[in-house]
Specification:
Helices cover about 60% and strands about 0% of the residues. It has about 300 residues and is mainly α. A two-stranded parallel sheet has the order 1-2.
């Protein structure tokens, strides 16, 4: 069983928003894995190349949101129409990754609460960005009916409106250190810029883009299991893993230092403002990568 909370399972069983996310995600074969080096792999962007890291949180609602976020990343990630037109321009690539992050984050941080308002009381004890829309009075007992009605009548438009409200915080010149919900978002924006710089250096991203076009086309046009096996062989080839158990180890290690610095700055701001707990994974895995069968609701 992947999803743990009744609210998320119900949305899947009733063909709601969670069902939509899983359906998009399942169009291609995917693999789930446990990291062999948590410090290096925790911030590694595996959904871009077909994988989702298994994580365990004490708070199972947050754990479910993590999986939905990663699934939305993978399920909405576009690649070139064919191998001859794989994305190889750094600016186009940066824009693509930026847009994909906006979409995945809008889902797991905001619109999921429009779909399932009762989920909010089970997630974070500290304020999050969506609270200012759905719970402007500062309590999670009753969501703003105006936003719930807008979600019911035009979910696609409301999702875009909230996504761009979030994006405006990311690009603002304001630091937001006294507004932790916004400060958290700013951390992600600067991290994203650093990540793109690492991957466009030397054109390493092109290798992934071309490989993913091949993987997609082989998966849709032939045997999904064979396509996934070939893809995993490529990920663990010497060219990609550099003799380690981590694909793209150089990029993973370089970005992990950026990630740690940003996390430490945020934790310092939390301590300064005393705004509640920060939820992080509670298990550091030590096993090698392992392909897992995907089952969203059970079995």
């Amino acid at each position: 069983m992947l999803f743990e909370t009744d609210e998320i399972k119900r949305s899947y069983d009733q063909c709601g928003l969670v069902w939509d996310v899983v359906e998009r995600f399942s169009k291609l074969p995917r693999f789930f894995f446990t990291p062999s080096d948590m410090n290096v792999e925790a911030p590694h962007f595996a959904p871009w190349w077909g994988g989702v890291m298994l994580r365990e949180y004490d708070n199972k609602a947050v754990q479910d949101l993590y999986y939905l976020h990663e699934m939305e990343h993978a399920g909405t990630m576009p690649y070139g129409p064919d191998k001859n037109h794989a994305i190889d321009d750094p600016v186009t690539f940066k824009n693509k990754i930026r847009d994909n992050e906006h979409q995945a984050s809008a889902l797991s941080e905001m619109t999921i609460y429009c779909e399932i308002p009762e989920l909010r009381r089970h997630t974070f004890s500290h304020p999050i960005f969506v609270d200012r829309f759905l719970w402007p009075r500062g309590t999670c007992e009753k969501a703003c009916q105006k936003f719930l009605d807008k979600w019911k009548n035009d979910p696609e438009m409301l999702s875009k409106e909230m996504m761009y409200a979030r994006a405006s915080v990311l690009t603002s010149q304001t630091d937001y250190e006294n507004d932790l919900a916004a400060f958290w978002l700013k951390r992600f924006y600067s991290q994203g810029q650093a990540w793109s710089k690492i991957w466009t250096k030397g054109g390493r991203f092109v290798q992934v883009e071309k490989a993913m076009v091949v993987f997609r086309d082989e998966s849709l046009g032939g045997d999904r299991r064979i396509a996934l096996d070939r893809h995993l062989q490529w990920l663990f080839s010497a060219e990609v893993s550099e003799g380690t158990s981590v694909p793209f180890y150089t990029q993973a290690r370089e970005f992990s230092t950026v990630y740690s610095a940003h996390k430490n700055r945020y934790l310092a701001a939390v301590k300064k403002n005393n705004e509640g707990e920060v939820i992080i994974p509670n298990r550091e895995y030590s096993s090698k990568w392992a392909v897992q069968n995907f089952s969203p609701g059970g079995g």
